């Protein structure tokens, strides 16, 4: 006899659509029972509460968290927008502050030039701006933005700050070159304002490293010249108009001949920070015969 083979039992499988219909029917039945059987609903509510309430609390917590996160994101976006606006305002304020600083600097310069103009009101002057300078830290030679078209000419004196800057050595139609009194090639006939003792002021870039220039041939036989005395251009100078402040006596040293003195002067102009200058629109008038005979030209030569 052949052995009996048992077939495995097939597992019951309920299609999804029927399962959904069954669950829906149960839910409808429970709703009907809830409204039609008020007396029996209390135990049902208690039983349902054990499962439904925790689920509702969880959903509420998740919902509350999502709402909170949404508000945080909205707040972050608002803060980002405000931050961008503030950054833009800061940039505008920085630009405005820079402009104000430039205007304040310009106003200070103009006030200095105005005061200087009033100090030498006997001379007609014109303002000019420095547009280029030779290499180095100090303005020993530079170009200004005015020339022959503006009435400028060689040997016109240039002033700024509190006194003498130098003189024009060459001109173009709309530019002029200025050689300052601190340049190595500059010599100025000068005198002490209080005593009228004469001297020669010589430029020296090496010496200006400590903020001073040199003088020599000071005739101070009465020993009346002291530190801090004002030094101005002399009336015997053939390049510079008289009475323009050059600087202040810094040191005094007797020369080996015991007849004259030498030393250093602190200039009245800051030759490290120059921007605008005044040009005196007239030149020193010296008769050719007198200048050639006395040799005054050598004192104010380049």
Task: Please tell me about this protein's structure.
A hairpin with a 2-residue loop joins strand 3 (about 155-160) and strand 4. It is built from 3 helices and 12 strands. It has about 300 residues and is of the alpha+beta class. It is rod-shaped. Helix 1 (about 15-35) crosses helix 2 (about 40-120). It has 2 domains: about 40-120; about 125-300, Thrombin, subunit H.
Order of strands, widest sheet: 1-2-5-4-3-12
Content-based structural category? alpha+beta
Share of helix, binned: 25-40%
Question: Could you tell me the strand content as a percent range?
Answer: 15-25%
What assembly state would you assign to the polypeptide chains in this entry? single chain
Unreliable spans:
290-298
Number of beta strands: 12
CATH topology type of the largest domain:
Thrombin, subunit H
SSE run: HHEEEEEEEEEEEEH
Highlighted features:
302 residues, alpha+beta, Thrombin, subunit H, six-stranded antiparallel beta barrel
Write the SSE topology:
Blueprint: H1 16-36, H2 38-119, E1 125-133, E2 141-144, E3 157-160, E4 163-171, E5 176-180, E6 187-192, E7 198-202, E8 213-218, E9 230-233, E10 245-254, E11 261-267, E12 276-280, H3 288-294
Antiparallel strand pairs: 1-2, 1-12, 2-5, 3-4, 3-12, 4-5, 6-7, 6-9, 7-8, 8-11, 9-10, 10-11
């Amino acid at each position: 006899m052949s052995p009996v083979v048992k077939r495995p039992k097939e597992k019951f499988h309920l299609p999804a659509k029927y399962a959904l219909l069954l669950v829906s029917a149960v839910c409808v039945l429970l709703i009907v029972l809830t409204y039609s059987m008020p007396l029996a609903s209390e135990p049902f509510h208690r039983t349902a509460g054990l499962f439904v309430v925790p689920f509702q609390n969880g959903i509420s917590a998740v919902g509350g968290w999502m709402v909170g996160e949404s508000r945080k994101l909205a707040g972050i976006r608002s803060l980002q927008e405000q931050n961008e606006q503030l950054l833009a305002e800061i940039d505008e304020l920085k630009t405005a502050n820079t402009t104000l600083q430039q205007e304040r600097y310009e106003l200070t310069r103009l006030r200095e030039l105005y005061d200087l103009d009033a100090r030498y009101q006997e001379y007609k002057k014109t303002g000019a701006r420095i547009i280029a300078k030779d290499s180095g830290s100090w303005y020993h030679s530079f170009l200004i933005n005015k020339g022959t078209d503006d009435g400028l000419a060689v040997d016109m004196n240039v002033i700024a700050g509190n006194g003498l800057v130098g003189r024009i050595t060459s001109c173009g139609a709309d530019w002029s070159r200025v050689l300052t009194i601190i340049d190595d090639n500059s010599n100025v006939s000068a005198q002490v304002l209080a005593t009228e003792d004469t001297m020669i002021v010589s430029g020296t870039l090496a010496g200006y490293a400590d903020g001073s220039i040199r003088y020599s041939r000071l005739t101070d036989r009465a020993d009346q010249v002291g530190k801090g005395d004002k030094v101005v251009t002399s009336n015997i100078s053939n390049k510079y108009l008289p009475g323009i402040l050059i600087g202040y006596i810094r040191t005094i040293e007797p020369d080996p001949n015991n007849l004259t003195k030498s030393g250093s002067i602190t200039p009245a102009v800051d030759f490290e920070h120059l921007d605008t200058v005044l040009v005196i629109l007239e030149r020193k008038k010296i008769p050719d015969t007198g200048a050639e005979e006395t040799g005054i030209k050598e004192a104010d030569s380049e």
